[in-house]
Records
---
Amino acid sequence: MKKQTWAKVFQNEVRNLGKELGINGLTVLNMRDKVQIKVRNESGQTTVIIPFEWSEKKWGDAYTRVRIIATLMQQGHGLLAAANMAQGKAPKKGQDWQDILEKFKKNKTGFGNAISETTWDKDYKACYMAVDVMAAKNPPSDPITLMEVCLKDWKPATRTRQIRARALSQFLTFAVGRCNLSDTWLPPARLKDLIGVVKKGEEPTKIAGDPFDNDQQILDLLASLPTDDQDKKVSKAATQWFNALCLMAELGLRPIEVGKMISKYDPELKRDRWFCTHSKKGGNGSTDPRFVKPLPLIDRDGNLVNWNLFDRFKAGLLPLPENIDGDAFRSYLIRKKHYVELKAAMKREGKNLVNYSFRHYYSLRSHQANIPVGEVCLSMGHSYESHVRAYPYAKASSVDSAFDEGIERLLARVKAKKLLEEKA
């Protein structure tokens, strides 16, 4: 009779706890002299055995554990995950997390809307950091703490921190969904708190970048590079980057695309053309390999600038840097006085000079020349689907003629401006 009395009190306390926390069907039972927690609701029945004896001596401790588990369930965790979390269970150090990361990388780079190895290396560094953190002594026991440790070295509210936070979120979601990690390791649905906000009194870091103001800014920047320096190493690097920046300016390329240009025969136009082999895939859509149409700059005298890039490229006379991406771009130009001064001058005007400024300016000039948006998108490999849908499919011949006509309009625009200046 005494045994039934304490057991009845235990079960009633648990039922009342369920009602208090809004967990319907929460009960405890004797399962082979161990405490079994059961939750029954419209979705079915779930049970878990916790490491406490079904006895008068232990029921108070068992109730404390049940209350902890129920509180975790109220926060959104399932019964099994809450039980594991209450017991302090987590993946083993080191190897388990390393295995999960390897599977995650294979999934991201090999399936679905797969990303490139370059994107993986650039945007998913925080996942390697997470593995190292979990392999260390006294690792975090929850996802938010783990993410905070991996993100703290990046300034709040920056694009880099946002990218790292999203990568960690994807990693942990994959670990739970595909590698049977307890759902207590699911990342928070809201990442804003982890990404952070700009502190009061600070200006937000502008990431997207702005186009150049005019052609001459680019030409002056190029002219400032030490291509004729007496130090051959310096002049060689300057010449290589001069060529790379010319390609970015004239073709509107992403930095990474500079090293992925080839000459390819266009059967529709019946001649060789610039062709970009880069394929960009990601959450915002994909960019397929494409023909690219040059949009030459115009100098201060109103003449088209002819660097003869395509013919030099085909002849093997257009040396380029071995490594061309956003980081390499910044590493080279950030030490150049003219670039630093130009960046500072643009900043004073509320503008941000970045590696994509060449590409942005190509796009701006295309629209100033009244080249249809659909044609611009095709040449640039843009994924602006909302713009492309507004235009009929553009053939290569229409892209080519649209740009040729646009160049003529730009020339006329510059010459008209020059004429007005002379009359003034």
Note: Residues 141 and 148 are 12 Å apart (CA to CA).
---
Amino acid sequence: MDISYLKKQIRDYIRDNSLKYCEIPYKIYKIKEKIIELQKMFILNTHQVIIQNEFNGLYINIVSNNCQMLQYIQDQTPEICLAALKHYVCAISWIKEPNQEMFLFMVGSTGLSLEYVPEKNRTLEICLVAIQNDGSAFQFVNTQFKTPEVYLAAVRKDGFNLKYIRDEHQTIEICLAAIRNNGKSFQFVNTQCKTPEVCLAAVQKNGMNLRYVDRQTPEICLAAIQNSGLAFQYVNTQCRTPEVCLAAVQEDGMNLCYIQDDHQTIEICLTAIRNNGKSFQFVNTQCKTPEVCLAAVQKDWKNIWYVENPTQELCMIAVQGSWKILPSIKHQTPELCLLAVNINGESLKFIREQTQEICLAAVQNNPIAIQYVFDRYKSVELCLAAVINNGDMLEYIPEKYQTQEICTTAVQNSPNATRFVAS
């Protein structure tokens, strides 16, 4: 059999078998047979010698298309093995005699593959390369290689590696490096390393780290709040100074709920309200001055519910925010009611004391308001105003007010209004 023919068959198998796993067993068998036959001819037919480099080229081509073929190659070389590893690092398990270069390549491609490097083959260089590729590989580093240098490299790559470093091996430098990489790593810092410098760096990176600070200072608390307003809930009582409380509500007005009544001031309450109107519900009674109440209702009309005796001015502001607040207002003045119906005539249904002027304004604004007008205020003028804008409102006009003009106007605006014309 001609060698070139065998080579062509091998190449044909490689092309046909490209990642078609359902055909792998049969194709592998055929390729193995041809390779063995080719090897025999290499020994017996010296006049058709194929040099070893050409064999390597064929094998490299095979494993490049399907790295699983590596397990069936008898004469493995570093070049063939590296070609397989480039496509699948776990191909290391099919290499008969892996060397350090192969392990280095493997962890350099996928750091977490350090787990599959036998402990006897793990060197400081291999461990460092694995960590540089993926910080999580640190968990598989041998104990003898866990030096300050390796610790530092590990936390610089992934701050969460600090959780794998025992308390006695932690240093200020290692902890700071971990925090700079990932602020959440502060939770793994031991008590001895929680110096003011480390704590300050931690809360500047992530304000919520304040919960892990045992010895708080106003400076640390302020830095935490400036990073995250939510951190204020972890400020201890001693550090809740006026300055800290003010900074807290500047970041998030709802922090007012964590400030005790005796620590609240007009300035703090106003600042909280300007940041978030909903914080007004946490203002103590003493701080609910006209100025604070005005700022609160201007920020959010719903705050009128938290004002015990709202003034006419506050009620007007609330109604401008939403006319639906009318039922909650005890003292409905004519001016307030007129404002409400001019915003939406439908608000007439919430007005306890109607007047002719208020009813007319309501109907002109929204014809549907005619159905809420008290009978004593219904007039020809009012009914005409209603049907001019919406003929179907004839339904709510009593028969005694259905004049020729009103009925004609209603039908002209809405032909269906004929069904509401009194017989």
Note: Residues 24-44 form the longest helix (21 residues).
---
Amino acid sequence: MRIRDVLWYALSHMKKKKKRSFLTMLGVLIGIAAIVSITSLGNGFQVMFTRELENSLGVNTLTVTTTSFGGPSGSRQTYDTILYAEDADYIRNIDDVKAATAVKSVTGDVHIDNISYTLTIQGVNISEYAKIYESTFKTYSGSFENLENDSVVVGYNVAFPYGNETQAIHDEDNLTVTLTYRSGVQFITRNFTFTVVAILQQAGGFSQQDTALFVPLETVLDIYNITEVSYIVVSVESSDKIDSVKEKIKEYYHDEIAVNSSEALLSTMESMFSIMVLFVSAIAAVALIVAGVGIMNIMTVSVTERTREIGILKSLGAKDRTILGIFLAEAAVIGFLGGIAGIIFGLITANILGSQLFAMFSSGFSSSGGTHTLTTNTSLVITPIFDPLTGVMSLLLAVGLSIIFALQPAYNASKKDPVQALLYF
């Protein structure tokens, strides 16, 4: 029999056993759908995460801190070096440095419409900070010019704390901030009044600027009567200059400091995502193994049911390889159709999950006692990214596994004695 005749014969038998063929195909469909949906969502999530992380960290940035990100083993190293505000002035004068600012982060309560919100207050050089995060640190209203010691730049969600278009804070408003600081052995809680000079555009994503206040660094240091800062953030002119600037900064601190680059962090995260997607896809592939066992069982039953048919075919001159080909063709068709349906179903599933289940958080605030905490708007929709190569490999895997698991029943069928097969009831 020609290959075309073998395929026609296999398909005609599948039409007679539609329900059985469909149920057998269903196992393949589920396995392929799981692989396609997981890889597509993983690729989409990786692209989304990288984009949002770039917006949050800035492009070509270095963070000078006393704690490293940790190496491949996950270890973290902490240095005893103290960072001072004046260090940023030295770093700013290094060749190929675009901007640099020291950052001192504190927490305070902000009073808006008789409601107290617990927020992060960032003491920074605001003009330098705007150069570093030029893609996200933009004004919704107001400007960064003519800054005074009591000036404050307000994050979008602070000005719009109710999750709608109701604006609670406007330019030139006075904002009362309650800070607790130490004076000798005593802790003092005191109210400070700042004047709003600008409201930031909404950054969204992973950026925390939407729920923060930004004030001049000197103001925070004066209030707390300190000189050390939390970290220093540096913007480099181009990506090819990052390593040289990093080495100069480490040399200034005699290698007793951690200089973490945004590119290194992004590269590490991308590698982690790739491994995670591969691992989860391998787990999903177990469903294909289960489907393969199902195909073997169905083929074994089919061979038993069609024993007389096999005897008739052999008595008419069909060779062993023809019988083998008929059963393997049935398995291949099941794998192929199940694979195609699985790819389509997997893409549909990935799009549904990407738009619904991965909307992580919503904007607004949650209450805890008498103090409210603003949350950043991180309602992110993941757009699944389908790799055609993954589709082709999944389809080949479906067909290949179907044939492999059908080999034993098909071989048994091809070796049946025609006389005994004809006498089978």
Note: The first strand starts at residue 61 and ends at 65.
---
Amino acid sequence: MLMNSKLEKKDLGFRLENPFRALKNSLFFYFWIFQAFSLLGNWVDYTLRQWLITIIFTNPNYASQFTGNFNLVRFIPSLVLSFFSGIIIDRVGYRNVLIVIHVIDFINSCIITYLVYTNKINGFYLLLFAFISGITMSFYFSARSTFIKNVIKKEADLTSAFSLQGLTFNLSRVVGPIIGAFLAKNYGLYVGFLFNTISFIPLILLLSFSKSINSNEIDISDDKVGKSLNIFEDIKEAFRYIYRNSLILKSFVSISVVNFFGVSLVSLLQVFTKELLRGNISNFSVILSSLGIGAIIGALFVASLNPEFVIKFKEEILIFFYGVFYLIISFFPFSVYYLMFLIGFMQSLLFGICNNRVQILTDSFHIARVISFYSVLNISLGLLGAFLGGNIAYFIGLLLVYKIFSSFILFSAIYIFFLFKK
């Protein structure tokens, strides 16, 4: 097991630290603030795009099926490109990659704003934009993680930095749907999409003009960077690295289960809200916000943990209760208003712990490639699960899909416990 010598010498007990300590780094502070604004716009956009599906397809079965296909279209480029994203980032530089993907997302948002404003939006355009966003997502998480790993010099502050990313994501998940619903009801859907378009600008300017960002800060030799063209050998070497590190491998297995069977159910919540709860976009935004509030508390908790505790934590306990809560919702649909808070809390704890563990235990040479594989599971499996769940729901109903997926989560938690018992 590769582990920093400093971590090996410390006691592995529970200890809380300042969750905001990474913000002492001025460059990271500005990146965090501007990214928070961008993520807020993303969640406004996410809420409105999901609700657009129920407007375009009034039949709930068709809406479930299209939601599945929508996520499949995002899944395909993520699955293919994520394996190569880390290697491309090593060669091109994480700063350049971050700028390009944010500019592409900015243009994507400009176009959909225009189409919604002119009432020309349809299912084809939603699928096209989903495919483009799948391409940018393939690079985003690896480039962002490499950026943070190089900006934050103190290894002890990494848990704070990565957990604060989770905090902004989940805070945006709370506020974004509320803003999206407010703008849609009072000013029209297109204003919400315009809000997202504007949110990209500060971060693009920071990445483009900040003199403090250097894409070549990783202290490794040219040979290690892999400037040879043997990309597939680089991929195989990264797989071997993951397999040799049991705690990294356990993190990969855990987030695979939760993404495929759990996050996929979140992607179907707009249909759940309209079909089973007979709700509107305001009800949908309340459920997403409840999920986000729980996730914020979970992210703050993870940010307060010391690295040693994160490394040794047994996340299968969280996975088990995560599955229990979804199973309850499948029998009592209106309990979603109360249990989504706990689901968000459990999900945030799990993702925060697994993500921080992988970041801490992976050295600088492997970080871009390992995180690129991690993002495959963290993004693509949720999309694949939503595709399967949405299409299965078309034939057997949404509640039965929730029962089946939650049962798989429970059994998987038990399997992980015995698989990594030692």
Note: The two ends are 14 Å apart (CA to CA).
